[in-house]
Amino acid sequence: MRKKNIPYAILFLVLLLGGCIMLVPFVWMILSSFKSNLEIISSTSILPKAPSVEGYVTVFRDAPFVRWLMNSLGTSVLITLGTLFTSALAGYIFAKFNFRGKQALFVVLLGTMMIPFQVVMVPTYLIISKLGLLNNLMAVVVPSLVSAYGVFLSRQAVEAIPYEVIESARMDGSGEFRTFWQIILPQITAMLSALGIFTFMAAWNNYLWPLIVLNDNEKMTVPLALVFFNSKNTVNYNVEMSAGVLIMIPVFIVFLIFQKHFIKGLTMTGMK
Amino acid sequence: MSKVLTLYRQYRLDRRFIFLSLTPILLLFLIFSIAPIVWGIILGFYQYSALYQESPFIWFDNFTNLLKDEVFVKSFWNTFKFVGIAFPINIVATLILSLGINKIRSTFWRNTLRTMFFLPTIAPLSGSAIIWSTMYKNDGGLFNMILERLGLDTVPWLSDPSIAMWSVVLMTLWADIGFNIVIFMAGLDSIPVQFYEAARLDGASRYVVFWKMTLPLLQRTTLFVTVMTLISYFQMFPQFQVMTNGEPQNATMVLALNIYSNAFQYNNMGYASAMATVLLLIIMVITLAQIRLGRSKWEY
């Protein structure tokens, strides 16, 4: 037994060391955020010598920081709700109804998942500009309301529900939409919460598309905001790091609270 | 007779429901997915720019110009270099790490380790890129500080053309191995314990168990992981734009960044679309080949 324990201990320590290394950039970010800008540029010390909150003060003073958070929160919530609704509804129809061209449509839907964003980026930009939505937060929301992957996952989940459940709802005179809302939705909540978490994270972290369609400082979302300090205040590293802390740490806390659902969701979406 | 009638009524109701609910969804899908794909490919054959009134159809000129464009050729090979380095390391490392973490007996530590490796994936890539560029700084960056402490030479992480790509790869791996670790761990968990017991009773060595049993049974997971990772790596953008913006000497100029710059900074939207079509072809060929090769023969 003892012979076995030594390699096990080594394995454990190596993994723990690896895990700690993964956290180093975040520790570095937090430490740097408390340094003065001069110290970051000149010093060779990892720990802040004269801790200051100058960076944090600048974030709130020089930028519409709360506004950015609200922009991100608002767009991400809308995208998530929209995606969940359209995915569940389309998934239900693809799973339980028949109509002409259904299979072909579904294959096309799945095929779009392979398309790199770079291909659709320019035309979508042109469409958004024709709709007069450039530099409007709706430009971020509208193109992301339907997700092929979401429809795919929903169809899988709805297929597992037996027909009898739907039939008996019909017998009770329930309308189609009510059947969907009251009978189908409650049965696929596990899948929907997984999809919801991922849609939200993807929307919250999306960088390229908001970069293309949003220009005003007032309209920026969080990922753009992080870079804003990089380009505007060329050398204010402490401000960047403070903004990073303010944006990432709350997300980490939310993640740690909902961790179980999150991991379960990831594996569920990944395994199907 | 009345049964036929109710069936017919149900049929009519079904049609109406399908029509009313699917139409808006498909309309959104058509406008923001199908139409842009078709339009994007067509744009590659036009000299299109938002700045000019005229946008003539120029056949394959954009594509023949691509071949003569040094920056494009460089970005093409750089993309393969990036994927060629980052992808195999990602898959091997995440497989080893997930096997390792799954061996930990305490549930608490298994979950804690998984969380530690997963945390970077929930941070926005643009933010992580900023953190890493300050860590890579020549003076006062974390890496060079450590090298100095150890009495070693400092490294120009992002300013040396032969090193910059490796620096971006390292940052990318840090930022996204968590996803694959979690998925591999779940895949490993779903292999029935009895299989391992049976293998042990048969006296199979650990080497044989891994290569002949674990890996084949993990095929579905591996297929998913490899397809998703490749598709996303070919399109990687934020860290290239934020950390190096293609510099130095275009050593980190990848297709995704080149397309963005051409479309939205130089306003060559037709030319950028031709590039995007090339990227599309690469991803399609590779994905289809993978699905072909990796189709699972195992069910359990």
How far the N terminus sits from the C terminus of chain B, by CA atoms, comes to 48 Å
Structural class of chain A: mainly alpha
Helical content class of chain A: over 70%
Give the H and E element order of chain B: HHHHHHHHHHHHH
Helix content of chain B: over 70%
Number of strands of chain A: 0
Number of helices of chain B: 13
Tell me the distance between the termini of chain A.
39 Å
Backbone shape of chain B: flat
What can you see in these coordinates?
The complex is a heterodimer of chains A (272) and B (300). Chain A has 272 residues and is mainly alpha-helical. Chain A has a single domain (62-271), classed as Orthogonal Bundle (MetI-like fold), CATH 1.10.3720.10. In chain A, 77% of the residues lie in helices and 0% in strands. In chain A, helix 11 packs antiparallel against helix 14 (237-271). Chain A is globular and about 75 Å long. By secondary structure, chain B is mainly α. Chain B has a single domain, classed as MetI-like (MetI-like fold). Chain B is 74% helix and 0% strand. Chain B has 13 helices and no strands. Chain B has helices at residues 2-43, 61-68, 70-103, 107-118, 125-135, 142-149, 164-189, 193-201, 206-217, 219-234, 238-244, 255-264, 269-294. At the A-B interface, helix 1, helix 2, helix 4, helix 5 and helix 6 of A face helix 1, helix 3, helix 4, helix 5 and helix 6 of B.
Entry keywords:
heterodimer; A: 272 residues; MetI-like fold; B: 300 residues; mainly alpha
Q: Brief overview, please?
A:
The complex is a heterodimer of chains A (272) and B (300). With 272 residues, chain A is an all-alpha fold.
How is the topology of this model organized?
The complex is a heterodimer of chains A (272) and B (300).
Chain A: H1 2-33, H2 37-42, H3 54-62, H4 65-96, H5 102-111, H6 117-130, H7 138-141, H8 148-159, H9 163-171, H10 176-187, H11 189-205, H12 208-213, H13 222-232, H14 237-271
Helix pairs in contact in A: 1-14, 3-14, 4-8, 4-11, 9-10, 11-14, 13-14
Chain B: H1 2-43, H2 61-68, H3 70-103, H4 107-118, H5 125-135, H6 142-149, H7 164-189, H8 193-201, H9 206-217, H10 219-234, H11 238-244, H12 255-264, H13 269-294
